[in-house]
What we know:
The chain has helices at 7-18, 74-83, 132-143, 199-209, 265-275, 325-334, and strands at 2-5, 32-38, 44-50, 54-61, 63-66, 68-73, 89-94, 97-102, 105-110, 126-131, 157-163, 166-172, 176-183, 185-186, 192-198, 214-219, 227-232, 235-240, 259-264, 285-290, 293-298, 306-311, 313-315, 319-323, 339-344, 351-356, 367-371. It has 378 residues and is α+β, with helices and mostly antiparallel strands.
Amino acid sequence: MKFVVERDxxxxxVGWVARALPARPPSPVLAGVRIKAxxxxxxxxxxxxxxxxxxxKADISADVEEPGEVLVSGRLLAEIARLLPAKPVTIRLEGPxxxxxxxxxxxxxxTMPLDDYPSLPPMPNAVGAIEAGRFQEAVSQxxxxxxxxxxxxxxxxxxxxxxxxxxxxLATDRYRLAIKELTWKPTSPTVSRVAVVRARTLTEVxxxxxxxxxIEVALTAPGLADIVGFGAAGxxxxxxxxxxxxxxxxxxxPSNSEITAVxxxxxxxxxxRRVSLVAERNTPVQIAFTAGQAVLNAGTxxxxxxxxxxxxxxxxxxxxxxxxxxxxxxxxxxxxxPYVRLSMTNAxxxxxxxxxxxxxxPAKVDYKYLLVPIRFTV
Length: 378
């Protein structure tokens, strides 16, 4: 095997497939990246990785002098490719070793046994496509609410609901709920599917494909192995879906709210960030809404304390609610609008955050962030 490829092309492709490598591979070969060079179609090199749950593949154009296949350490190759000079890279197989040459730099890597490497799962059939920028925004808005607690595997995922031209993403960690609804291009106007996808997978796909025009979404047919796939710009990834019945969290959304407050997102963000500096671990930030203003407070007793007043409009009676400052800032950071409307029932019921373009008018209905307040004593 021998081929020549541009450094940036190689680094991008290796970085993509290496991101799927397990931190502690159950088998040494699963730490490898498989490289397959073909001389047909003008020369194509396919790089791939797989850990039995997540796979990644990238096809790149190269000047293939000798076709062949090899398996080498993925993370090491990714680091080498990232730091090589901006010159063409030659990769060739010499006996049991793989030699990487770029300018005056030469690296020799040990190869791994290809016979022990598992076959990658095939890409499922496409169910639709979505504009990459909109997908990236939607994932960022929803993934913040997914838990990172591996003891609750179902809640580490994002529930994806497909109903014709409507795609809905939903996530919760029991303390907050995020729902994003957007339109997309299904392969069939009658397609109807539900899947729970790892939030980490969605985040990595959104980041890697955010610069492309659109992302193809694929799902295996019902009854087969539950796999989701994403593809764009010569790159593909597949991931096993999370099995289980997602909790019926939509019923937590309030049907009506007696109290609403509207605040400028930037002002609330900055004020919350400042007063939370004195909040100890698990200590909330309190927000007292009265006519024309909101007062943020943090810290109690003999500890450090902070207070700040910002403008706000209020409809309904005065109310004070307390939030985990990190969850509050997470939601405000992805609300995607200059103003936010907080819909409240009382100090202990979940509060609904919705974006608004102005201090008056309707709220944006495509994104909802529901946050459970923290009980506090006066």
